[in-house]
Amino acid sequence: MSFLDADSFIFDGQSSDSYNLMMCWIDDTANVSANGLRRTISSGETNHVRLKTNNYGVNFEGNIEFSFYVIKRDETPFTRQESMAVNLWLTGSTVPRALYFNDSAIPSLHYYAVCTEIEDKVILEHQAKRLVFQTNSPFGFTDPVEKRFYVTGEEIFSIDNLADTVSGIFYPSILLSAENGSTVVMENVSDQKSVTFTLSSVTPDSPEKRTILIDCGQMKLTDENNGGRLLPFHEVGWTTQYSSYISSTGEHMESIYWFRLIRGTNTIRITGDCEVTFIFEFPRKAGCL
Asked: Which of 91, 96, 148, 249 has the fewest beta carbons under 10 Å from its own?
């Protein structure tokens, strides 16, 4: 059903099973109040003239937080070395890392979290550790899914947007591989927008095939041929003379379009010889359950 049914978890690539740990709840009830579902309305004030507030949207009050206990599976006390090893694992990162719970819930979700608290407890002669994980989002995320397309000339296909965002808009990551000197146009026909990449402004010693990662959510380009360095926009043809053709409207757009999916099924048109991989990690509004 949820993390409440899990008896183990994976954090930062390591399983609690590797440390002989088992999840449990020693208190009568598990605290799932910090579930990312509380929101506040951004609004103006009322007065003798304005009898209704002007609403400017909503903000999430906080991100999801998990709190639970772990004990050793054989219920023996922690040795000092065992306790130190668990502490080092859980506090080894200062930035959010992937957190998975080994439950049977569908869909499978994971979170990005930092372990912010480890409290050693002795309850009824049993040693336990109370753990607190604070995530960086009010959403859980589906397992990453990749959709790869080999395009020669032109390819048209559909992609379903399964994100639970308020606006329904989702920004994927895209891995684009194409020959130097080639031009690739990515158009979301459903959104009536497009973006053009011209891989001609490259260094003389660049490989024949260029691979770039387009992180649309973070509005970032990285050069996968050179250790993921940040890619200057002019190297993909994004200059003051830039424009991108939209076949569905017959017009050009001069602003940069960070490729996105709108709500529902999106029709995508890719023009140019290339290999394109769309990477989806859809946010889902599951709370703590």
From this structure: 148
